[in-house]
């Protein structure tokens, strides 16, 4: 089970990618005081945690109600994560985990950015929600603590994201734009590989079911 939990940590760390949040957070909170930034960072991560925990606990039931099998969801989730990975590597927005131009304009005019675009779709976007549901379904093959482990890992990754936002200016000075882009592209390659693995497992399960 330790291998599964490690995979869950890597998957969620890569898809959420705290380093991607940093430049967006700095840009949207440039005029805010330090206290306001801390409040926004805290509220953002709490909202993202609520969303991810909800999908972790209720996502599987919703899929069962709609008659969606685990292999089908793994294939669809794999393609969605692959799209997010390509976006990270190519640095081109597809809207799967970063706001579109129109959404960015709306976010700039918004008084509260903690919900949109920070919590959704930057942190708890479609890719993160899909990953949580897939991991919770995989956790069913282990003991009951595996599912709890996935939830705790998601909370831990969000804590890392919170720390990254709190230290956003220091991180930007330390790594710079180039450093952030390099880390994002590395994470994108890892995410693309994980996404491909999900697709392979899903297709293999479908083929076995047809025999």
Would you kindly provide a written description of the structure presented here, covering whatever features stand out?
This protein has 9 helices and no strands. The protein has 211 residues and is mainly α. It is 84% helix and 0% strand. The relative contact order is 0.22. It has one domain (2-210).
How many strand elements?
0
Quaternary: single chain
Q: How many strands, what sense, and barrel or not for the largest sheet?
A: none
Total number of domains: 1
Structure at a glance:
This protein has 211 residues and is mostly helical. The protein contains nine helices and no strands. It has one domain.
List keywords for this structure.
211 residues, mainly alpha, globular
SSE order and pairing:
Layout: H1 2-16, H2 18-28, H3 34-65, H4 70-90, H5 101-109, H6 114-123, H7 126-139, H8 145-166, H9 168-210
Helix pairs in contact: 1-7, 1-8, 2-8, 2-9, 3-6, 3-7, 3-8, 4-7, 4-9, 7-8
């Amino acid at each position: 089970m330790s291998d599964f939990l490690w995979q869950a940590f890597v998957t969620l760390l890569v898809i959420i990618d705290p380093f991607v949040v940093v430049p967006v957070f700095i840009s949207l909170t440039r005029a805010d005081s330090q206290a306001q930034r801390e409040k926004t960072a805290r509220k953002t991560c709490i909202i993202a945690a609520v969303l991810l925990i909800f999908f972790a606990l209720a996502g599987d039931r919703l899929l069962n109600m709609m008659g969606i099998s685990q292999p089908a969801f793994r294939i669809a989730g794999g393609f969605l994560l692959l799209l997010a990975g390509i976006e990270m590597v190519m640095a081109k927005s597809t809207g799967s985990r970063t706001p579109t131009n129109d959404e960015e304009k709306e976010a700039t005019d918004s008084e509260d950015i903690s919900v949109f675009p920070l919590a959704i779709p930057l942190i708890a976007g479609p890719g993160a929600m899909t990953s949580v549901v897939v991991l919770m379904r995989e956790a069913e093959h282990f003991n009951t603590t595996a599912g709890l482990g996935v939830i705790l890992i998601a909370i831990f990754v969000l804590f890392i994201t919170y720390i990254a936002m709190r230290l956003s200016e220091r991180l930007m000075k330390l790594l710079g734009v180039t450093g952030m882009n390099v880390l994002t592209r590395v994470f994108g390659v890892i995410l693309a590989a994980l996404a491909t693995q999900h697709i392979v497992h899903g297709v293999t399960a479908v083929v076995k079911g047809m025999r």
